[in-house]
Amino acid sequence: MNVRHGFYARWRGAEYEASPDGPRMRLYLERPADGFTPVAPGRHVRVVPAAEVDGFAYVSTRCTWRGEPFVVLGEHDGWLRVEYVGGKAPVAERLGLEMFDRGVYQAWAPRAEVEDVREEAV
Questions:
Q1: CA distance readout (Å), 93 to 90, 99, 101, 117
Q2: Segment holding 94, helix H or strand E
Q3: I want to staple 10 with a disulfide (CB 3.0 to 4.6 A). Which of 55, 81, 109, 116 is the partner?
Q4: How confident is the model at residue 2 (pLDDT cuts 50, 70, 90)?
């Protein structure tokens, strides 16, 4: 499963993790490629004019767990790190979620219990 959570842009027929920067767009790859500069191990960047980007969206992976809406933050060994997006503290407490921050509830959910995994782009 590929959990995506962040900005993505389409440029020259390929999709990249991206970061908008005014009239420019930073495109990222995990591997070396022509025109991309290494900035950290496993991280390469190329800056292009935003006008050259064919598509741009914020992508998140969503799901339903125990009948409630969640966003998927990550995956490890058959477990998904999920964050409750239903906005009701009593429901989060009933589900036994960890309070990560004020009003932010997360948990590790067994992948087999998670339903309706899908990407949403805005």
A1: 5, 9, 13, 23
A2: helix 89-94
A3: 55
A4: confident
